[in-house]
Design brief:
By secondary structure, the chain is mainly alpha-helical. The chain has one domain. It has ten helices and two strands.
Length: 258
């Protein structure tokens, strides 16, 4: 499969930096959209009042996580690279790439579910590590990867490395996989329920589903991320939701007991 960067940038370099670039582009699009208050899961005033960390702090935290992510990715690609230019080696067929892509999704979901859930169960880890992410009581796109550095390493970076290794995907396939996972994560934290959004059509694990987790009643539910809700349903931590109109015209995701 030909790609536009072939002959200019290595697959490994694209796999390292494309997800980082897509993060800021996709989050920036949400940030620059005109006011869409009727599609917001929380009012702007609620976002300002309830969040416990400032936007500049969030941006610095995300940049730190991305620096860690880039170092690990470069190390991983270096350790697993074959002799010669990866772009000159045979590439997987589309069907094989699709299969490895799906395996990567399942592996990442499994890794993140159990690490994420344990960080809620273990009071020490929640207080000193995972609570950083929950300072954003009302999530927004730029804060999707705002975490404590230890969580950034264990949950996202190591989780991505395990997904890459166990699925057997090539560096070229990883460009698409990690870019897609990044965009999906940003969308899940966007706080917007936009009509026609394919993530909301094809994935039950979406912005509203994850918003339930970020609210006080959600700390024991909806740990699954970023793709499916399989583990939540299998292990009894699934909290479905319904969307209701707020008095200000916006939307609100409310839990519905199974």
């Amino acid at each position: 499969m030909m790609v536009f960067w072939e002959g200019y940038v290595s697959d490994e370099m694209m796999g390292t930096f494309a997800p980082l670039i897509f993060y800021w582009i996709y989050a920036g699009i949400y940030h620059l959209l005109p006011p869409l208050d009727r599609y917001r899961l929380h009012s702007r005033k609620e976002e300002e009042l309830r969040n416990l960390v400032s936007l500049p702090t969030v941006v610095k935290g995300v940049l730190l996580q991305q620096a860690i992510q880039a170092v690990v990715a470069i190390t991983l690609f270096t350790m697993t690279s074959q002799t010669g230019d990866s772009q000159t080696l045979p590439q997987d067929s589309f069907i094989t790439q699709t299969g490895k892509f799906l395996i990567g999704m399942l592996v990442m979901d499994t890794w993140q579910y159990f690490i994420h859930r344990y960080m809620h169960i273990n009071k020490f880890l929640y207080r000193h590590v995972h609570s950083y992410h929950h300072k954003l009581v009302v999530p927004y796109a730029f804060g999707a990867l705002y975490n404590h550095p230890l969580e950034a390493l264990l949950l996202d970076t190591v989780g991505g490395a395990v997904s890459f290794l166990l699925s057997g995907m090539t560096p070229r396939t990883s460009v698409f996989f990690f870019s897609f996972a990044t965009i999906k994560t940003v969308d899940d934290h966007s706080g917007l329920r936009l009509p026609g959004n394919p993530f909301h059509i094809f994935f039950h694990n979406n912005a509203a589903y994850h918003d339930i987790h970020h609210q006080l009643h959600g700390t024991k539910y909806n740990f699954s991320q970023p793709f499916f809700v399989t583990w939540d349903k299998l292990l009894g931590t699934h909290m479905p939701f319904t969307l209701e109109k707020r008095v200000d015209g916006g939307l609100e995701a409310r839990p519905v007991k199974d």
